[in-house]
Amino acid sequence: MDPVAISAAVIALAALAVSIVFSVLSWRHNKLSVRPILRLYVGYYSDSSNPGLWISNAGVGPALVTSFQIFVNGSEVSPGRSGWDEMKREIGAENWQFNSFSRNTPIPAGEEIALLVPPDKDRSPVADYSDMFSRLTIRIVYANIYSDALTG
Question: How much is the pLDDT for 128?
């Protein structure tokens, strides 16, 4: 066997292996570079934010909501207006505005969406909603643009 041909074949295989490794690393990096990160937070007037329960996408890519569930004291709230109205009654937020997510709702990067906010007349600089919200559990399953499922 010709040593030059063997050397050429070894170099070609090594180049192919390096190319495959870097392709996989690049693909992983691309997925992470558009990862959405959903964050649920309570806003108070005292910290200069809007009062209520909010969700924000703190990631760099859009989040596509695939499932949205709410639990009050451990019991799942039935989706739809009657279930949501019952949930608001149970936690003492009858007049509050509630926003839900339907399947495949996008949340753009940097977006903040109100989930449950008091009407203007009920907003108080000293209001503490933590007792009300402590009875809620919210489960959101969402995907990135590569359709990888994430849970928040």
Answer: 65
Residue 121, pLDDT > 70, answer no
Question: Can you say how many angstroms the Cα of residue 77 is from the centroid of all Cα atoms in its chain?
Answer: 20
> Which residues share a beta bridge with 114?
54
Contact 59, 36 (CB under 8 A): yes
Beta bridge partners of 75: 72
Per the CB < 8 A criterion, the answer to whether 89 and 81 are in contact is no
Q: Edge to edge, what strands does the sheet with 38-43 contain?
A: 38-43, 52-57, 112-117, 97-98
pTM, 2 dp: 0.72
CB 83 within 8 A of CB 66: no
Q: Which of 145, 138, 72, 64 is nearest to 106 (CA)?
A: 64
Return the H-helix or E-strand segment holding 73.
none
Given a cut of 80, is residue 11 above it in pLDDT?
yes
Q: Which residue has the tokens 């996408």?
A: 57
Short-list 111, 94, 114, CA closest to 43 = 114
